[in-house]
Write a structure and sequence with these properties.
By secondary structure, the protein is of the alpha/beta class. It has two domains: 219 residues, Rossmann fold (3-Layer(aba) Sandwich), CATH 3.40.50; 186 residues, Rossmann fold. It has 16 helices and 18 strands. The chain has an eight-stranded mixed sheet with strand order 4-1-17-18-7-8-9-10, sandwiched between helices. A six-stranded parallel sheet has the order 13-12-11-14-15-16, sandwiched between helices. The protein is elongated. The two termini are 22 Å apart.
């Protein structure tokens, strides 16, 4: 997305990161393994790493903490050096530093985050504290970018109509995943041989961190129930891609099931090979604010089944069209959805075609359109549509690490 934004002729983008740990490689607690991304994170846009006061090679409220943010946003004459600060998230020291510095300099602040109203249970005291916090946050925010339907409801709940709201869909690089998935077809037989998969049997795919809240255990139980009532025809495979805290439990629960394959952690560029194998992708998570893996697999033209606690479903999945949405934790409903996709002739293929068509309208171009509208409204320095005669001097993104989109500032 940063590369795409940097191509806009009248937005000059610079990114300020608080850490380089995702570039160096790090231990991902969710995956439970060392991770070094195999896609370029820093190509195609201007960036800087801010000096660190604290950097524990992880993202938390207090790590990283950078120094010099106020000075970086100030020009040599003490005037604002930038037109806009874009902050991703509001619950870290760095994000608060950035917002406070921007407001002290008179720089508008644009906020984007994954939040939704299906919060984990909180006491009345904590809810009142959150409401008080948002009353203060509202004073520091000039506009909000909505990633989707449920996120929009969140901002409207806390800010009402008092803070301008702009749509900027949560998207992935559709072109990248579509092309990678198409290219993967040439190596399908090789991967099937590696996984010992027989031709002619459908593949149910799970690909995510093996955390308890992802509930791959629900999928495994539904798979068992599906096999128990299978009436004729070859049995499907269940392919599980990922690693994490729940893997040992899942492997024990799958003991004796010949159709289950555990593939471990696979890097981003490898995932389209597994999308290509799949007949249907399943994400049974609880409290999943979005689920970008769904965007990725829809670009491969595959049917998707998600729980109704996966935040992307109102925007990307119509029940029975691109796939199915079932009540989170309802293993019977998940089993029924799997049975339809696996047993109904041609249904998985039709749903996959619908999925690819739908995701094609939910991508970076829509993101850029929403961002341009926000920048034009808050700064009055660019047109909503690109115009060669207009130029906003510079935009800066302030981020915790290079694997995530966090904060951007448009320079004066």
């Amino acid at each position: 997305m940063l590369r795409r934004i940097a191509k806009e002729p009248d937005i000059d983008l610079t990114v300020l990161f608080g850490s380089d740990f995702s570039v160096r490689g790090y231990e991902d607690k969710g995956f439970g393994v060392a991770v070094k991304w195999d896609v370029p994170l820093l190509d195609g846009y201007n960036y800087e790493f801010l000096p660190a006061l604290r950097d524990k090679a992880t993202q938390s409220v207090t790590s990283p903490i950078s120094r010099g943010i106020l000075g970086r946003l100030s020009g040599r004459d003490g005037q604002p050096a930038y037109d806009l600060l874009w902050v991703h998230g509001y619950n870290t020291v760095n994000t608060m530093q950035g917002m406070l510095a921007a407001k002290s300099l008179g720089i508008p602040v644009l906020l984007r985050a994954e939040s939704w109203l299906r919060d984990r249970s909180r006491s009345g005291v904590r809810l009142r504290a959150k409401q008080a916090f948002f009353a203060g946050l509202e004073q520091m925010v000039d506009g909000v970018l909505s990633i989707g339907t449920l996120n929009r409801q969140y901002w409207q709940h806390y800010f009402g109509d008092r803070v301008p709201l702009f749509d900027m869909p949560y998207a992935v690089d559709n072109e990248f995943f579509r092309k990678k998935s198409e290219d993967a077809a040439a190596g399908r037989r090789e991967l099937m041989a590696e996984l010992k998969l027989e031709a002619g049997r459908k593949v149910i795919l799970f690909a995510s961190k093996l955390q308890h809240r992802k509930h791959c255990d629900h999928l495994l139980e539904a798979y068992k129930q599906l096999l128990a009532k299978k009436e004729g025809g070859p049995e499907p495979y269940l392919v599980i891609v990922g690693d994490g805290e729940a893997r040992a439990e899942l492997e024990a629960a799958a003991d004796g099931l010949n159709g289950v394959r555990f593939c471990g952690f696979r890097n981003q560029s490898e995932l389209p090979r597994f999308f290509d194998l799949a007949s249907v992708f399943v994400l049974p998570s609880r409290h999943e604010p979005w689920g970008l893996i769904v965007n990725e697999v829809m670009n491969a033209g595959r049917a998707v089944i998600v729980s109704d606690d996966v935040g992307c479903h109102p925007d990307l999945i119509t029940n029975g069209v691109e796939g199915f949405v079932y009540p989170v934790g309802d293993i019977g409903a998940l089993t029924a959805a799997l049975r339809q996709v696996v047993d109904a002739p041609g249904l998985a293929e039709r749903m996959g075609e619908s999925a690819r068509a739908r995701i094609s309208g939910w991508g970076f171009e829509q993101d850029v359109a929403g961002l341009r509208q926000a920048v034009a409204t808050l700064t009055k320095k660019i047109a909503v549509e690109p115009a060669s005669l207009l130029r906003a001097d510079r935009a800066v993104e302030l981020g915790e690490d290079a694997s995530e989109l966090h904060r951007m500032v448009a320079r004066r």
